[in-house]
Amino acid sequence: MKKILPIVILCSSALFSCKKTSLFQQVSSSHSGIHFKNEIIENDSINPLDLVNIYNGGGVGVGDFNGDGLPDLYFTGNIVASKLYLNKGDFKFDDITDAAGVNGAGRWGRGVAVVDINNDGLPDIYVCNTITKDSLKRRNILYVNQGKGNDGIPHFKDEASEYGLEAGAQSTMASFFDYDNDGDLDMYLTVNSATASYNPNLFGNSNYTANHSRGRLYRNDWNEKLHHGVFHDVSAQAGINLDGYGHAATTIDFNNDGWKDIYVSDDFISNNILYINNRDGTFTNRTKEYFKHTSYNAMGQDVIDINNDGLPDVVELDMNPEDNYRKKMILGPNSYQTYQNFDIYGTQYQYVRNTLQLNQGPRLGQNGAIGAPAFSEIGFLSGIAQTDWSWTPLITDFNNDGYRDMIVTNGFPKDVSDHDFMTYREQAYAVTSKQKVLDQIPEIKLHNYAFANNGNLTFTDVSKDWGLSLPTFSNGAVYVDLDNDGAMDMVVNNINDEALVYRNTSRDDKNNLDKTHYLQISFKGDRQNINGLGATAEIFYDKDKTQVYENDPYRGYISSVQSIAHFGLGKVTAIDSVLIKWPNGKREKLTKLKADQLIKVDIKNAQDPYSFVQPQIAANALFKEITDSIGIHYTNKGSGFLDFNIQKLLPHKLSEYNPALAAGDIDGNGFDDLIIGGTAYDQAQVFFQMPDGKFNRRNLLTGNINPVHNFQDEGLLLFDANGDGKLDLYAASGGYEFAANGPEYQDRLYINDGKGNFTLTADALPSNLTSKLCVRACDYNKDGKPDLFVSGRVEPWKYPNPVSSFILRNDSENGHAKFTDVTAQVAPALKNIGMICDALFTDYDNDGWPDLVMAGEWMPVTFLKNEHGKFVNTTVQSGLGNKLGWWNSLVAGDFRHTGRTDYIVGNLGENSLIKASDQYPVYITAKEFDKSGIYSAIPSIFLPDQNGDKKEYPMYGRDDMLKQMISMRKKFTNYRSYALATMDEVLSPEQRSGALRLKANTLQSCFLRNDGNGKFTAIPLPVEAQVSVLNGMETGDFDGDGNLDVVINGNDYGSDATIGRYDALNGLMLKGDGKGNFKPLSIMQSGIYIPGDGKALVKFRDKNGQVILAASQHKDVLKVFRSENKTKTIPVKANDVYALIKYKNANTSRQEFYFGSSFLSQSARFIQLNDKILSVTVFDDKGNQRLVN
Q: How far apart are CA 25 and CA 489, in angstroms?
């Protein structure tokens, strides 16, 4: 390959347009000679009202068509001719289109796939054609490279018919790959037949015509007579039979079984499709199994490793704007019915935003069975979710720092989704000329986005810094090293503007080359696949770092990138080894390579065999799921109540916080049992553990039960209420379905006869009709009886009004349970304290008196110090009073061996549209604003205005605001007026006066380090714990290293339909290092896989005393895991308070014993021992101590 000498860049020259040094500098067309412009002139038949896909644009193809070592460029045109440019060096190109014979034949070109179809070493060009009604004019073109003529120009001949590749469909893009592992290249054709004649966003198949919009699979069969392969449509027999409006496809090996799969991005409501290769010539769609949701209007995509863990991740683009104005102009109404239709029609959940599916490796099933990869969608967390009307994601290491960056092309000449235009169109279409209607459609000319990879699952928007500030209508694009300097340049195909060529300047500064090292690899395969498509390259460097790339040039959107592997290395100057795996089952290992070179690998040098055979069982996982083997079969039904029908602007539902779990020995046989919360008409369930380790299931109450009132169990608590030594059950009533202060919210106390038979008491509890969530027990006044804390969660139908929580003193006598509300006397601070989600009785200052720590929504983690039986709010003194969050779960432990109790507090996390900081908090403003008798709560967030300045705007769109407050219709007569209105303009001073206004400035889940003397420091948990809401949590030394770890259950599917479900968590184990640091473990390492709407998590013991974890999921199955770390466990007594643990390495720890800990959870009370422990001393509530080991 030729090496082009560095070009001296002068800002005064005409060569490059630049104002300051940036990563990309635009090469002027006058210098490059590339004047291609994909110009579309509208008329009565060619316009966005009649042609849905008119502005889907053209692609770019990269190939060295004349064999001179420089990559050349091919642009597809829609109405205009396509163009081929030869690279002459120095970023200069010659237009050889006519001489080469590749002008597109007057067809509407879309995608371009560069492929050596006949394996003669000369790259060919396959052009996909579309739009035209005449199928003959939609025939695809295969320009076969005939070699250079005497003029040095390569000449091409259309041989699509001879190769069986004319198709004649509404073709979008072709992907050449070997699906049947026979050595030659087959082809998947992405098809998009969307038309204006029917609505593509209807659920079901009733809207489809006989002309299905369906991709096609072509098998390459050798034709001896023609001496080359001929492609045959084998879609039907291969199971390629699903409709969808395809924009892009990637053909890589998703599940690492050695067979290529197909992932298809489909527009509108049509499902994205993940065809998993069955290894027998057929495919099965498994998109709903692999992904919990996808992009709605899915555009371009790439499947590539973004975090250097060796696993393919998925990036997919959509059309969610970043700024408030554009958001509000296209944002539709929040329709929870859409959620329901997803389920009714079996459709994949989809949201209008870019998505990044993070591959977490194989999931685990029963008894450690290894399954398909599990993905977490982290687009919001990563920072790439909102780039407006987007088309191409270009993902490669543009700055050569060792992490793949991302560039997004976007723009659309006519925004038919603008709501003001849609309203105008409905009203004026019948009486107004088409041209006048077209003139009313807004343009969306936007700059392309650049995101630098931070190396921690997040990206930083560097669009301006990298020189991408020019507004364009950009579609297809490629990365390509045009000057062979080791830095990837960029080429973009624009509508109605000349194509853009950007030179990458990252290696210009010779004094900075030590930070931008690289390695490039080109592939030479065998005679059936000469460019080695499908081969993988994995590099190992800098001790434990790796990167991997699968050789597939058909990435992004309707384009072919340069067919090389490019690895940025940062400061690393040498590679330890490179492992090349070829599709034929052979591999080659290269060692000790210098950086800053292009190496060429050849399949003929690969002699060592490798295998894709994977183990069936995760033998080394710390936990193993045993749900089925112990006979626990439970699925939560849920209620289906729509909170949004009550308050349209809620940020989330409040009726789906269930089911709770409580563990303890209920029937007195020495084995821990389990209770799962229910409702009045779907009783709580008791699972009794038998001596054989199996569980028997029974309703909480037996016989004919006719509840007087409806209720929903929230928190459950097993404790001895009446002093008879048996575990009774307190059930807190909550939810949002019933009006405030209704009898449905009265809590219940069930007395246990000692054999697991419960009786509902009639007079043990004071009347309390608050909607509650958690209940905790502790002898706060040291009278020998367990007292109760019960949290008020919400005032139904008036979120977010603060509510009171309660202290119930245990006044039971002579076996008769009786509790008295003494809140006003002992804890007046609990009056209207807020919306409490979780609480913990814990002695945070080690003074011997149990304090109360609470987690709540729109408030700080709150500390009430127990001063000899009276609780005083000390939150301000804690140092955490200014950390206002949506705190919802608490778990405690001495994570640093200090003898002081630290805490982990669950929060919303960072994977949401809702972001919060001190500078830009999230607010909610609530009041009966319009004297309608309806209580309205308006969430607001900071978003960029049209100038990029962040201001406070209502979170929801105009349609939702009008549904909540009809009076707003007069104030905002159109969408534009609302889109420009800040919160100060939405609500008048009179309306704001007297309104409740709450804020949150911290949404990260945190580790609260106990610094002593009642002081704490909040430290965010690792980013892997910020991907979703954290709910049930449990601590323990699960790996036996002498340090506390934590296992987490989470997600929240009750969020509003606009933001979408918080579903990215698959369960998580954080390994503690004994110093307050935590390392996230993979599913394979931990064995924990809880993919649903996770709620409670509890710990108890099996028949052999081994640690068991049970995890509940709303509207899903209960999952049970057994620790594989064999340890000894010792139960503690009801009045035991804490233990001091001494380790053989001289460390010490303090372990408190709780009646209830973390979200909706109560674990059994016991101590876990292992060979790292020297001694354990247990202390009871009277200060007595005993050695237990």
A: 9
CA distance 214 to 233: 12
CATH of the domain at 572: 2.60.40
Exposed / middle / buried, residue 852 (Cβ in 10 Å: 0-12, 13-18, 19+): buried
Q: How far is CA 1173 from the centre of its chain?
A: 40
Integer angstrom CA distances of residue 482 from 17, 506, 507, 823, 1121: 18, 14, 13, 74, 54
Q: Which of 167, 195, 221 is the last residue of a domain?
A: 167
Q: Is residue 1007 domain-shared with residue 1115, that is, in the same domain?
A: yes
Q: How many domains does the chain have?
A: 3
- 282 found inside a domain: no
823 is a domain residue:
yes
Q: What is the mean pLDDT of each run of 10 residues along the chain (1189 residues)?
A: 38 43 96 98 86 92 98 98 98 98 97 98 98 92 96 96 95 97 98 70 53 89 95 97 93 97 89 96 97 95 98 97 94 76 83 96 97 98 97 98 98 82 70 78 91 98 97 97 98 98 95 94 98 98 96 98 98 97 96 98 96 92 98 93 93 96 97 97 96 96 86 98 97 97 97 96 96 98 97 98 98 96 98 98 97 98 98 98 98 98 98 97 96 93 96 96 93 94 96 97 98 98 98 97 98 89 98 98 98 98 96 98 94 96 96 98 96 95 91
Q: Are residues 691 and 567 in the same domain?
A: no
- Give the CA count within 13 Å in the CB-facing half-sphere of 389: 24
Collapsing DSSP states into helix, strand and coil, what is residue 380?
helix
Using alpha carbons, select from 505, 497, 310 the residue that is nearest to residue 413: 497
Taking the C-alpha atoms of residue 546 and residue 564, their distance in angstroms, rounded to an integer, is 17
- Interacting residues of 404 by C-beta distance below 8 A, sequence separation 6+: 304, 305, 306, 395, 396, 397, 453, 568
Beta strand spans in 383-466 (E): 390-396, 405-410, 446-447, 449-453, 459-461
State which H helix or E strand residue 1048 sits in: strand 1045-1050
Q: Which of 148, 167, 186 is the last residue of a domain?
A: 167
Exposed / middle / buried, residue 126 (Cβ in 10 Å: 0-12, 13-18, 19+): buried
CA distance 51 to 195: 6
What are the residues whose beta carbons fall under 8 Å from the beta carbon of 89, sequence distance 6 or more?
Answer: 2, 4, 70, 483
- Do 713 and 1096 meet the contact criterion of CB atoms below 8 Å apart? no
Helix, strand, coil percentages for the chain (3-state, nearest 5)? 10, 40, 50
Nearest alpha-carbon partner for 846 in 451, 542, 1137: 1137
Residue 634 maps to which CATH number?
2.130.10.10
Find the radius of gyration of the CA atoms of the chain.
Answer: 32
Element (H, E) at 288: helix 287-290
Q: What are phi and psi of 281, to 5 degrees?
A: 90, 0
| 577 and 662 together in one domain | no
In order, the DSSP letters of 848-871 are SS-EEEEEEEEEE-EEEEESSS-E
C-alpha 76: how far from chain center: 34
Residue numbers of the domain that contains 118: 58-167
- Cα–Cα distance list, 400 to 166, 250, 450, 518, 1169 (Å): 40, 24, 14, 6, 49
* Whether residues 677 and 810 fall in one domain: yes
Q: Is residue 781 part of a domain?
A: yes
953 inside domain? no
Give residue 1008's Cα distance to chain centre. Answer: 26
Which residue in 732, 823, 847, 717 sits closest to 778, CA to CA? 717
Q: Do residue 697 and residue 754 come from a single domain?
A: yes
User: Among all chains, which residue has been given the structure tokens 């683009």?
Assistant: 317
Closest CA to 162 of 145, 150, 144: 144
Where on the phi/psi map is residue 1129: left (φ > 0), alpha (ψ -120 to 50), or beta?
beta
